[in-house]
Amino acid sequence: MICWYCDGSGVLPSGSKCPLCKGAGKLQLRKIELKAYCTAEKCKRDGMCVWRGNVCPYLVLREVKEDEV
């Protein structure tokens, strides 16, 4: 799976606006492979990702096939 989050600027991969920045600023998205550093189970449970101590409330999860990684 890949954890997408808005890095302070506005639009999620789904096309919806971030709940906090509300579409302001320049779009910056990053994708993080959910390996050892991200709590994937927490993401699945309540839609929040804890990664390196930061909680991301905007994330969108999607499963990727092995050959897409």
Structure, described:
With 69 residues, this protein is mostly beta strands. It has one domain. The chain is built from 1 helix and 5 strands; from the N terminus they run ββαβββ. The strands form 2 sheets. It has a 3-stranded antiparallel sheet, with no helix packed on it. It has a two-stranded antiparallel ribbon with strand order 3-4. It is globular. It starts with a strand and ends in a 7-residue tail after the last strand.
* Radius of gyration of CA atoms, rounded to a whole number: 12 Å
Oligomer designation: single chain
Please, how many domains? Answer: 1
SSE series: EEHEEE
Q: In what order do the strands lie side by side in the largest sheet? A: 2-1-5
Structural class by sheet pairing and helices? mainly beta
Helix content bin: 10-25%
Number of strands: 5
Largest sheet: 3 strands, antiparallel
Q: Distance between the terminal alpha carbons, to the nearest Å?
A: 9 Å
Mean pLDDT: 50
How many helical elements? 1
Stretches where pLDDT is under 50 for at least 5 consecutive residues are 25-29, 57-69
Shape: globular
- The fraction of residues assigned to DSSP E strands is 25-35%
Summarize the entry for a quick read.
The chain is mainly beta and 69 residues long.
